[in-house]
What we know:
Bound molecules: fe (ii) ion
Shape: globular
CATH superfamily of the largest domain: SOR catalytic domain
Number of helices: 1
Strand content: 35-45%
Mean pLDDT: 94
CATH architecture of the largest domain: Sandwich
Structural class: mainly beta
Radius of gyration: 15 Å
Number of domains: 2
Order of helices and strands: EEEEEEHEEEEEEE
Largest sheet: 5 strands, mixed
Low-confidence stretches: none
Distance between the termini: 33 Å
Amino acid sequence: xxxxxxxxxxxxxxxxxxxxxxxxxxxxxxxxxxxxxxxxxxxxxxxxxxxxxxxxxxxxxxxxxxxxxxxxxxxxxxxxxxxxxxxxxxxxxxxxxxxxxxxxxxxxxxxxxxxxxxxxxxxxxxxxxxxx
Length: 132
Ligand SMILES: [Fe+2]
């Protein structure tokens, strides 16, 4: 059973997929069940550089990966950053290159949203913004 927007990884070949429409089937790659990548938000040793920090600005929001920006090297980098409305109807994903800063801007007028970022070594981290 999958849920919309879950992210799974194949531990054999490294494929990473996101669920766009949920169903009862198990996701399989390379003849093995894919692993659900759970979002972390409370790993004290890694938080500073991984949990997305969402800041409101005049156009919408800025999502920065980490209070201290995460490194962007070939060996250790953020693969993507993604912002999601609370009702999961709207999603914006920025796939990062090594020469990008690990952040993105989005135009939005919502009052709450969450964001997540995938580090190639440390996994998936989630941060939230609630105006009220
Ligand atoms: Fe990392």
